Amino acid sequence: MGIMETMFGVFPPHKLFELDYHLNLFTFIKDEQNIVNRKRAAKVLGSQVIVPLIKIKSYRKTLTDFIDMLRLSKNFRDRQMYLIIAKASLK
User: Fold this and answer.
1) Tens of pLDDT along 26-62?
2) SS3 15
3) Residue 21 to residue 42: CA distance in whole angstroms
4) Which are the contacts of 28, defined by CB distance < 8 A and separation ≥ 6?
5) Per-domain residue ranges for the chain?
6) Considering the entire predicted model, what is its pTM?
C-alpha cells in the first residue's frame, strides 16, 4: 500500500487514472483482509483521487459508480469504507 500512496502523491492523478491505477485501489478496498490497509487505501482514494478528478466529467461516472456500490452495500465494512472516503474527501 505504501507504493500506491507514494505514486498518487507524486504523479498527477489524471495520468494514473488514465493508466487504470485507480482499479488497484478499488480492488484493494474491496478485497483486502487487513482493515488498516483498507482504511489507508480509502483515504488515498478520497483525498488524492476523488478530490482532484470528480470535477472532470469523463472520470466522474467511474468514481461515482464505485462510491455508490460501497454506499449501497449490505456489508458493514463496505459502508465503513464509504464513510472513510467521504471524510478524506472533505479534508
Assistant:
1) 998 999 899 999 999 999 999 999 999 988 888 999 9
2) helix
3) 14
4) 1, 4, 37, 38, 41
5) 2-90
6) 0.87
